Design the sequence.
């Protein structure tokens, strides 16, 4: 049991009381490093007062939907498959060494150098220090030349570069930029390439867009990372078993694969080379909405998601967003529905009745 993992579980927003109870029980059995040894669904169900099948569903939700836990395969000494364990994703294990150093620094002497004695105490009855002479009572006067203190034994010398202005600062955790683009597969680390190269066409694009959607919508502190490329590689490795299972069961990602690609070796969602035909039904109100949308979202996001889609205002005052694929339509609906409604209301006025998302199928 670990107080750190229990505190981490309390901070997670999982959106369901039973999911929260299952996560709390898993963290209750986790060690301080965030490693949860096998817990039977029945054991967890007995604690939270539920059913083992219910626990199984919520464990799967924590693993696949919320990605707060990761399954770890274990093997018996004879080589057989053992009971699985879990790792807490996003949990940062405590740095006990740093904590001990911090406590130790509070107990250090007032004078930082071990071999340095405190300055002599000024005697009240001794001679008075003045410009006209007299005894020296150890008081440094304004204008006196001060000799630098000796450096502590073993301490590295102070380099001039350490005092230069404009030196690069350490990278701070930051949120995923809105215009973030995933790496091409050929730019990934070798071990990651060896896994992703086994995926069917379009799977890499689908997983990368799921990664983008997840972290752009994550508002908790865990949504800040120092290295988003490393986070993507970690996500890809974690999703590898699921992608392979889906492919084995006949799930196709081909519609998301780039045109003319059989291996999915480029990043980003596939787009048609030509806009959807529904753009021919647009009117001046559509152009006004497009102009405001490009200003509000920026050229990169606008060109990626709206340049090839159609923004049609129906006679009933409904804004129809017609996209080339189901994935693009779902992405726009998830991320930009509120902004679209706001801009449509500004252009259409009181006649605006809502937004409708559609998909235009390509002609075979």
Sequence:
């Amino acid at each position: 049991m670990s107080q750190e993992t229990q505190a981490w579980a309390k901070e997670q927003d999982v959106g369901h009381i039973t999911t929260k109870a299952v996560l709390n029980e898993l963290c209750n059995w986790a060690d301080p490093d965030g490693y949860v040894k096998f817990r039977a669904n029945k054991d967890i169900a007995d604690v939270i007062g539920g059913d083992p099948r219910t626990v199984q569903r919520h464990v799967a939700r924590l693993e696949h939907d919320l990605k707060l836990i990761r399954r770890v395969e274990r093997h018996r000494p004879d080589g057989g498959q053992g009971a699985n364990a879990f790792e807490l994703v996003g949990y940062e294990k405590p740095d006990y060494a740093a904590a001990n150093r911090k406590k130790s620094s509070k107990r250090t002497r007032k004078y930082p150098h071990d071999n340095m004695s405190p300055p002599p105490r000024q005697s009240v009855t001794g001679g008075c220090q003045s410009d006209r002479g007299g005894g020296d009572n150890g008081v440094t006067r304004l204008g006196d030349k001060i000799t630098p203190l000796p450096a502590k034994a073993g301490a590295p010398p102070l380099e001039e570069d350490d005092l230069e202005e404009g030196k690069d600062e350490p990278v701070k955790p930051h949120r995923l930029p809105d215009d973030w683009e995933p790496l091409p597969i050929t730019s990934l680390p070798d071990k990651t390439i060896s896994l992703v190269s086994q995926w069917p066409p379009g799977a890499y694009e689908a997983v990368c867009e799921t990664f983008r959607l997840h972290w752009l919508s994550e508002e908790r502190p865990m949504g800040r990372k120092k290295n988003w490329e490393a986070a993507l590689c970690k996500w890809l490795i974690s999703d590898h078993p699921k992608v392979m299972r889906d492919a084995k069961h006949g799930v196709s990602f081909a519609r998301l694969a780039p045109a003319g690609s059989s291996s999915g070796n480029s990043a980003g969602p596939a787009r048609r080379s030509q806009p959807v035909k529904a753009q021919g039904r647009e009117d001046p109100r559509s152009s006004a909405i497009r102009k405001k949308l490009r200003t509000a979202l920026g050229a990169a996001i606008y060109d990626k998601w709206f340049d090839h889609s159609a923004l049609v205002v129906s006679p009933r005052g409904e804004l129809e967003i017609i996209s080339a694929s189901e994935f693009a339509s779902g992405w726009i609906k998830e991320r930009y529905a509120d902004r679209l409604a706001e801009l449509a209301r500004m252009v259409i006025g009181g006649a605006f009745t809502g937004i409708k998302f559609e998909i235009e199928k390509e002609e075979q």
User: Anything to note?
Assistant: Residues 123-136, 158-167, 260-272 have pLDDT under 50 and may be disordered.
